[in-house]
What does this fold into?
Amino acid sequence: MGLQTISKGQILHKAGNDSVSTIEVLVKGKIKVYDQYSQIILGVGGLIGLSETPEKEYSYTYEALEDCAVYSYPYNSDEDVRFVIQSNPKIASILSSQASDSVYQFFNAYDKLYDDALAEYEKIKSDYADYPVLCIKAGETPITFEKIDLLIPPERTDKISNWEFNMIKSMKEQEINLKKFFYPLNIDICIGVVMLALERCRLIVDASRFIVAYRKQLKRNTTDFTTTMKMINGKLENMASSDSEGGSSDIVIVNALSTIISYSKVDPEIAAKFEDRIHKFKANDNRYDSADEARSLRRKLSSSFYDVFKGAFLHSLEDNDIPIELKMFFMFGFVDEELAGDKNTRILCNMARAYVPDPEGNVLLLYEWLKKVYTLEVEPSRNEFDQDWPTYLREQKATGNLNQAQIDAMTDDPLSRLEFEINNLFSLGNRMTFGRISSFVPVFDSMNVLRPLDMAYITASKINEFYSYIRNIDYGVFCRQALYSNPEIGITQLFYAEDVTPYMILMPNIGSRASLWQEIEGKKRSTKARMLVSIFNTENTEECMIKLFGEFRWEMCKTEQGVHWNDVTDPSLTSMYCDYLQFFKKNSSLSPEVKEKLKLDLKKFSNNYKNVFIADYLAYVKYESAGSPRLNKVSREILFTFCPFSKDIRDAIAENPQYRDLINHLASHNSNLSKPLLNLKNKLIRDGIQVPEVLSGQIEYLESR
It folds into this structure.
């Protein structure tokens, strides 16, 4: 014990080097208490070492900010802190006040430490989300950083309550009054305040250690990615500098049209027509005019395009090194660098170079989809008359266009299947997703670039994010009822919800629509839906996707219900919605204002019930799920009954009177459904039988709904 002077800049204790054996009272000057990430400042009356633990190494470094003097006391246990206060009754109020101030500063330092860690995490995740697009711009091929996918945000400690911080904050604000009127009342008050401060400081130090460890681990896990991002950003800066100085990219596309036509190996007559039509189209400044001549040219150009595409596609199947011009042709409908423009050509080239297929196989380029059809991996899609491949062949036989021998030869013939797919899903779906049917052309044209390409570009990761987004709200959107049976373990019939992720086919155009081509394959309800969207989407992609999922909900219900899809005696999403819209004028649950709005909505959508539903589904998913009411009582009830929100959403809106009864009813319904399943699961466990994944999954599904 004794007085000690410390010069400005001198280290009193160093983190990790010195062991705690003393506690000091600062009687002159200021001391900075810091570690790698945070710091606080102690003034006169501050207790140096209050946050430390005796006989352990110092967690913080203590440095004099000016010439200081401290009075040292032995520090072997917490009882020694109490002794320090009792030994200094005249300055006990100051010691108490400074102890409270230390806690206040430690709280703030911890808050900043947490906020900084969270900001680092969010920056990494944000950069990782932008990474594929930046790779495209830089002409690099994106790779997967698994450690980034597994990152979780930092967690706050549950040992420090908000009320404690609010109390300490209030004590800081009332510091003068406390020193004058409260602390002097009794020495035991001062001892209590200091001892509580000691306890809080240690908790904050422990909590801070977790955040520090998190930040260090975060840095280790993201080093490779941050290095890659620096390289890409550096390359982009060089490219921007080169562009501003009039330099040119190392990517050179010249005479792309000739390369594509030559590669396609089509008949010279077809090649000449296609080339001539492209040149005429490019030369016409009014090429999207509604005049007959312009419309005729667009129609003829489309016809030639698909002939060239088929030829190029067939050639590419034998080519292990497809030219970049052809990759751009297959992905984007690119045919001519002048038609696309230099800047767009460079961007498309980078995108084609950087393209990586969806590892899950759910999001496919149109080119990749045609390969699956050609190799008999999937059946061709339905045609414009809603006929699948076998039905189409049977219809051709019935009309006398084909005989049985021809049908047998064509059924598994790759070329016949390919032509069917190109003539139907490709040519019709391309026009449909383009959005402006009367002015459609399948070739990439800079005149159609209404939104920056990197922003409009639809990637597999974006689509998979939308799949996750919709499942987080409308949990059962892609679920169909399936049957499981295993008599050997006593399960004769178990109906369960099978989640089937749809195919999303990226059409090679710049368009404004997403479309459901078919909800199932053939008659099999367990097969994937086929959805189409432009690879460059010019509209609000979120709303496009929600509308698409709403359309799927409607069409899937019609398929499952069959002829009863609009029969209200067999309640379903479609039958209840049709009944609601057909008889809304007689519905006493609807106010006159709501009825008038419905009347206008039906007129707006040409009395198409499906389109009214899709608009309501958009409002339901985007706004109602966020607690912002948009629907009337009847439509809300139907939607929630057949498209219930996920449990997280329900918990968030549980107190909303518009949903309270609906949520309670659903909880009761799901509980009744899950009880026999839980009983069955418990019986299997008691009998030592492994519980089938289907049973566990269905129980989890009912609990999550």
Observations:
- The chain has four domains: 2-231, 256-433, 566-643, 646-705.
- The chain is about 55% helix and 10% strand.
- Residues 566-643 form one domain.
- The mean pLDDT is 89.
